[in-house]
Amino acid sequence: MNGKVALVTGGGSGIGRAAAVLFARKGAKVAIADRNAQGGAQTAAMIDGEGGEGRFFAVDVTSEAQVEGLVASTVSAFGSLDCAFNNAGITHPSRLFHELTLDQWNEMIAVNLTSVFLCMKHEIAQMLAQGRGGAIVNTASGAAIVPAPGQPHYTAAKRGVVGLTTYAADELNNQGIRVNAICPGMIDTPMVASWRESSPEMAEAVIAHMPGQRMGLPEEVAEAAVWLCSDEARWVSGDTMVVDGGMVCR
User: Fold this and answer.
1) Has 167 been annotated as catalytic?
2) I need a labelling partner for 103 at 20 to 30 A (CA). Which of 29, 135, 146, 174 fits?
């Protein structure tokens, strides 16, 4: 990662923060995007405190104008865009399919799927303009493999992320841009904590079936994301990497 520029969305907490910090430790300059200004600024401060270069940008990734501005601001700050980790996402309290409202559906699709499309669109355009390739990793979910209980819209969005990933990898295969997805299982993040508080019985039932009866750590997922963006993964594209301790095998 030495000398490269990485963009991380959802970098204000959880997996995004862990990845941003790890990118910096590996030598990258890091642009951090989040709508949570406090969390994003804290991540940038963590990177700067370790001697790295981090810059926070407050962005709503469901807005194309703001996403386009984010990519432009990253290039203005650091000179290029070499890799991107599209990680921003939300969850909702669990509910049955027929109880889901259209507003809940629209919000989930906008944040967890449409934002990935918008980010990829402008990241790819920048990488093509630079003419030296790049790497993109999108956060899907174990729900893209095995449906998440009480989360029909989350499941649909995350399967859509896998579809966007494989399509882009195929289209860009001969242009030096690699595109992969990671599918985390139950990870100990603020987002998952909010879901556990809203659906405690369902959450505990899921955790009880996880290997070791524990949640994964953000750092364990960050390792996979950063590796997929690195030159060490130069022969990997179009992959959907499950990072869940083996939960989907059960």
Assistant:
1) no
2) 146
